[in-house]
Amino acid sequence: MSNRIAVVPGSFDPPTLGHLDVIRRAAGLYDEVHVLVVHNPGKEAMLPIAQRVSLLEQSIREDGFPAEHVTVASWSVGLLVDYATEVGAGVLVKGIRSQVDVAYETPMAIVNRHLAGVETVFLLPDPSHALVSSSLVRQVASLGGDVSPYVPPVVSRFLDTGGRGI
Predict the structure, then answer these.
(1) Which DSSP helix (H) or strand (E) runs through 79?
(2) Residue 86 needs a FRET pair 20 to 30 A away by CA distance; which of 34, 36, 54, 93 works?
(3) Would the annotation count 74 as a binding residue?
(4) Which residues are catalytic?
């Protein structure tokens, strides 16, 4: 496993500007970054996984940051560390917005290190994204609110069309 290869996992339902911020910064820290869309059994998804992968790929392209070493994929079989091991990653990168996120992510980080020797790195968000979550975006969008300040333009356009494509 390499500490030069990182996995940025998440449900990305939908992708937010905070997600892009974490991905961009991870791409600056690691030689290869795998953005991994995973199913969170504790949440009811708004978008199918394939749509989230597509929106992330388009968002990364449109954002213009150096993304030649960024791969977007999905994973639904086995443990997250199984994917990390499969691609040779030694690091998981997680965005942390608050103490609640730290309390939620810490036990998983410890178990992932114990199971597969995969470390977890926590990145704090840009303050402009610190209070935005996919759950909040889903709620605002479902009530017809403007989510454009919180999501990449491609995601905003997609949600504005009612998910009928862009």
Answers:
(1) none
(2) 54
(3) no
(4) 19, 43, 97, 134
